[in-house]
Specification:
Largest sheet: 3 strands, antiparallel
Distance between the termini: 92 Å
Oligomer: single chain
Number of strands: 6
Shape: globular
Number of helices: 14
Order of helices and strands: HEEEHHHHEEEHHHHHHHHH
Strand content: 5-15%
Strand order of the largest sheet: 1-2-3
Radius of gyration: 26 Å
Structural class: mainly alpha
Length: 426
C-alpha cells in the first residue's frame, strides 16, 4: 500500500504521468507511449512509462544568461507588422541587388571591363550575362525553375492517385485555398509547395510515403497548403530562393568576388540572411498550427518526428547505395527494405535522440524540433476516421513503377537502344 506521503503526492498530481499530448516516443522496455512526469526539478524534466514505470530524462533549454547558449532570436508573431515589413525590406533588398549589379556591370564595362570580358570570351570562359558579371567580380542569381520535371520530379495525374487528389482537395477546402494545379513526387524525403510562371505545385517526397500514415500525411498536406494559402509559396518562396542562391553563388566564387560588385553581393547576402530567418520561422510556426488544427496534435507531431528521422536516414542510405551493382534493387526499394528491417529498439532510440538532442539547429528556416513539438501538443485530436492508420502508400496506384522511374531519373541511366541486328535465318 502507498504511504500517507505518497497518497498526498498522488492527490496533488505529483509523481504521476500527466498526459499532455503526443511525444512520438515509445518506451524501450514495454512499447507504451511515454508521458511527462509530474514531479522533478524544472531544469531536468523527465518522461515516464505508464506501463512499466520506467523514467527517462529529456532535454529542456535553460533560458538563464549564465549558459553560453547561442540561438536565433524568437520570430515575431506571424500576424505582426514586423513580419510584414521584414518581407517588404527583403524584396526591396532583392531588387537593389539586381539593379545595382546590372548598373554596376554596365559602368565597369564602360570603364575598361570590356577588355577583361573580351579576353574571357576568347578563352571560352564567357557564355552569358552571369559569366560577364562573374568576370567583373560579382555574382548573378537565377531563382526561376526552368525544368520542373528534372528539378522537382514527375507530375502525377488524377488517375494515378485519385485518393491522394481527394485528400488534397479536402484539406484545401478546409483551409479555404484553391488546390494546387499539380502534385509532383520528388526524389528526396521532403515536402513543400512551389510556384513558377503562374503554376503552383505540391511536392511530396517518395521516401516519406513509405513511413507515413493517412493521418500523418494529412497533417503534412495541411502544413504545406497553409504556406500556399498565406502566399508563402510565391513572394516569400522567391525571396528564400534568392537568399539561398546568392549564398551558394558567393561560396562558389569566394576567391573571385572583388570590387564594388563583390561588395554589393556580400552586403545583400548578409542583410537578407538576417531578414529571412525570422520570416521563415514565423511561417513555419503558423503552418504547424494549421496542421495541428486540421489533423490533430498527435498526427502532426508524429509526422514531424518521422520526417526528422527519415531525412538523415535516407542520406545515409544514399551514401552506401551503389547504383552500378546489377544485383541491387532500385534505391527506393533498397530504402524500403532497410527501413522495415530496423528493430523496434532502434526506432525508439532514434526518436529519443531526435527529441533530446542538445545540438542547436543551424537551419534558419525551421524552429528547433522540441519547440515545434511543444506547440503541436497543445492541440486536441479529432475523432479518428476509419483508415487513418493505413500507410500513405495506398494513396498511389502502381508504386513500384513510380519508384523505378524516379530511380532511373535520379541516376540518369541510359536508355536501351533498339538493336539493328536480327536473329539468324530471320
Amino acid at each position: 500500500m502507498a504511504s500517507a506521503d505518497q497518497d498526498s503526492r498522488l492527490a496533488r498530481g505529483e509523481g504521476t504521468c500527466q498526459p499532455r499530448g503526443f511525444h512520438g516516443l515509445l518506451c524501450p522496455a514495454c512499447g507504451s507511449a511515454l508521458e511527462p512526469l509530474g514531479d522533478g526539478p524544472p531544469d531536468a524534466p523527465r518522461l515516464c512509462c505508464p506501463g512499466c514505470g520506467e523514467t527517462y530524462r529529456a532535454r529542456r533549454r535553460d533560458s538563464s544568461s549564465e549558459l553560453p547558449v547561442h540561438r536565433a532570436p524568437e520570430p515575431p508573431p506571424a500576424s505582426s507588422f514586423a513580419l510584414f515589413w521584414r518581407g517588404v525590406a527583403l524584396r526591396c533588398l532583392e531588387g537593389l541587388f539586381y539593379t545595382g549589379t546590372a548598373l554596376g556591370s554596365v559602368c565597369l564595362l564602360a570603364f575598361g571591363g570590356v577588355f577583361r570580358v573580351g579576353k574571357g570570351w576568347l578563352r571560352d570562359e564567357v557564355a552569358g550575362w552571369s559569366d560577364i558579371v562573374a568576370t567583373l567580380g560579382g555574382v548573378w542569381v537565377v531563382t526561376e525553375t526552368r525544368d520542373p520535371d528534372a528539378d522537382i520530379g514527375p507530375m502525377l495525374a488524377r488517375v494515378d492517385a485519385p485518393s491522394l487528389f481527394t485528400a488534397v482537395d479536402e484539406v484545401a477546402r478546409r483551409l479555404n485555398v484553391k488546390s494546387p494545379g499539380q502534385i509532383r513526387v520528388t526524389y528526396l524525403p521532403c515536402c513543400g509547395v512551389v510556384a513558377w510562371e503562374g503554376s503552383r505545385a505540391l511536392i511530396l517526397g517518395l521516401p516519406l510515403l513509405r513511413v507515413l500514415t493517412h493521418a500523418e500525411l494529412r497533417a503534412i498536406l495541411a502544413h504545406e497548403l497553409a504556406h500556399l494559402a498565406r502566399g508563402d509559396a510565391t513572394r516569400a518562396a522567391r525571396s528564400a530562393r534568392f537568399v539561398e542562391g546568392l549564398g551558394r553563388a558567393l561560396e562558389r566564387s569566394e576567391n573571385h568576388t572583388h570590387g564594388p560588385l563583390g561588395a554589393l553581393a556580400s552586403v545583400c547576402h548578409r542583410w537578407s540572411s538576417q531578414l529571412i530567418g525570422p520570416i521563415a520561422r514565423g511561417q513555419e510556426a503558423r503552418a504547424d498550427r494549421f496542421a495541428a488544427a486540421i489533423a490533430g496534435g498527435s498526427a502532426a507531431a508524429s509526422a514531424l518526428v518521422k520526417v526528422a528521422l527519415v531525412q538523415p536516414l535516407f542520406k545515409e542510405v544514399l551514401e552506401h547505395y551503389d547504383p552500378t551493382d546489377p544485383d541491387a534493387p532500385n534505391l527506393y526499394a533498397f530504402f524500403r527494405a532497410f527501413w522495415y528491417r530496423l528493430p523496434p529498439e532502434v526506432h525508439t532510440a532514434m526518436r529519443l535522440q531526435a527529441l533530446t538532442n542538445t545540438d542547436e539547429s543551424n537551419d534558419p528556416a525551421h524552429p528547433p524540433l522540441p519547440d515545434r513539438l511543444a506547440l503541436l501538443q497543445a492541440y486536441p485530436d479529432p475523432a479518428t476516421p476509419n483508415g487513418d492508420g493505413h500507410p500513405a502508400t495506398t494513396y498511389l496506384g502502381d508504386l513500384e513503377s513510380l519508384e523505378l522511374m524516379l530511380h532511373n531519373r535520379l541516376f540518369a541511366l541510359p536508355a536501351v537502344e533498339p538493336s539493328v541486328f536480327h536473329k539468324a535465318r530471320t
